[in-house]
Amino acid sequence: TDPAKVKLGNGADVKGTRVRVFGRVHRERKQKELVFITLRDGYGFMQVIFSGILAKSYDILTLTRETSIEVLGELREVPPGAKAPNNRELHADYFRIHDIWKAAGGEEAITNRVSKDTEHATLLDLRHLTLRGEHASKVIIVRDAVEYAFNQVYRELRLRKVSPPALVQTQVEGGATLFKFHYYNEEAFLTQSSQLYLETCLPSMGDVYCIEKSFRAEKSLTRRHLAEYTHIEAELDFITFDDLLDHLELVMCRVLEVTMADPVIKQYIIDLNPEFQMPERPFKRMKYSEAIDWLVEHNIPNEDGEPHNFGDDIAEAAERRMTDIINRPIFLTHFPVEIKAFYMQKDKEDLRVTESVDCLMPGVGEIVGGSMRMDNNEELLAAFARENIDPSAYYWYTDQRKYGSSPHGGYGLGLERFLAWLCKQHTVRDCCLYPRYFGRCKP
Ligand code: 4AD
Ligand code: MG
């Protein structure tokens, strides 16, 4: 009878036992009497050794990378001085390769199609193959752990998960980045944010969160903008702005703790980002007006090449330089009304600014945007007028202010940006399975 089928990760290291494994040939090295392969199955890597007649068999002699293979054999500790994943090797005594499992060698081999010098656009066309690489797959595996950790931490904090619609008829973050489409006989959009819907859940469901796709028709090619991204959003009832900041800091740190508690994931993060350190708490808190002064002092100009003035947008380049110099997470707060979305609550002590926060991370810049929400209907209607938005489509949103309004707030975190920071990736495009951005909708 066949021994138990095992995955290649940590669970499979009971030395001396016979096991049966499946995987793809990640590397192979042929010697006179022995053939070594590194097998890969998404759970880990294992060194497999073929000797004797197996090493001389046609299929093993012609084995190409990426070929799928089933191996039976005995797990042993590696001899002193030798190196292998998890310090163990599988001594094969039987294997199976079906004809259709064989990967094309030579010119068509994946390693020839995807080399270090392959152009970025080609690499993206070949994303389905580059995903087989160690680097690309580690980022996606860490992503899974992080998403899972957010779910766990929100549970701990008693937030409930809901699932708002992706097809909507209202904008949240400005008309310029709306994807419009024909919805039967009406006009509709792909959602930019689930925030407004989350707000409608508060009265009867308590604090809520969602992990959904958001869509932005961004027309610029930057390293942190996608057309489709995963948006982690939460909304909290009966809170103050300070409560919101404390919650956000807690969630981010707790998510990192939970993620790093898994030794395999922790190792992947260290492999990807050797300098990673847990952020120091409390996060630096800085008002927008202080940031403007800081940018002027450091001679970092605005988008027109002029010194920053109160009221200017802090553009991506300036934001990133500031974050890189300060080199720790920053809660940037109290942005002017004019440069922020219609729904943001004004600061009672300074009506020029809003109770808003962006969380900035070194290497990436903004990864979270949040605020307290306007809870007064009159004020909200005035804000719609200011932005030239027809309030009639928002009847369900304004109703929240008519039937038992409350002080509430929330935020949205871009999962790909969080990962770009955590795994030190140059671009968010490498932090999702199949990136979508200006000019790319394949594979
Ligand atoms: O700052 P944003 O636009 O805020 C909102 O959408 C709020 N309604 C969220 C809320 O309060 N519930 O987006 C929030 C975050 C950004 O900080 C960024 O991390 C990410 O979403 N994000 C993008 N990520 C990738 N590609 C894009 N085009 C992104 N636009 C925003
Ligand atoms: Mg923002």
UniProtKB/TrEMBL annotation:
Q: Which domain of life is it from?
A: Eukaryota
Primary location? cytoplasm
Q: Any idea where the Aminoacyl-transfer RNA synthetases class-II family profile domain is? A: 142-443
Q: What class of enzyme is it?
A: ligase
Listed GO molecular functions? asparagine-tRNA ligase activity; ATP binding; nucleic acid binding
Q: EC number(s) for this protein? A: 6.1.1.22
Per UniProt, the keywords (alphabetical) are: Aminoacyl-tRNA synthetase, ATP-binding, Cytoplasm, Ligase, Nucleotide-binding, Protein biosynthesis
Query: Does the keyword field hold Cytoplasm?
Result: yes
In which compartments does the protein localize? Cytoplasm
A GO cellular component annotation in the UniProt record: cytoplasm
For this entry, list what GO says about its biological process: asparaginyl-tRNA aminoacylation
Q: Which reaction does it catalyse?
A: tRNA(Asn) + L-asparagine + ATP = L-asparaginyl-tRNA(Asn) + AMP + diphosphate + H(+)
Question: Which family does the record assign?
Answer: Belongs to the class-II aminoacyl-tRNA synthetase family.
What is the name of this protein? asparagine--tRNA ligase
Q: What is the lineage of its organism?
A: Eukaryota, Fungi, Dikarya, Ascomycota, Pezizomycotina
Portion of the parent chain present: 133 to 575 of 575
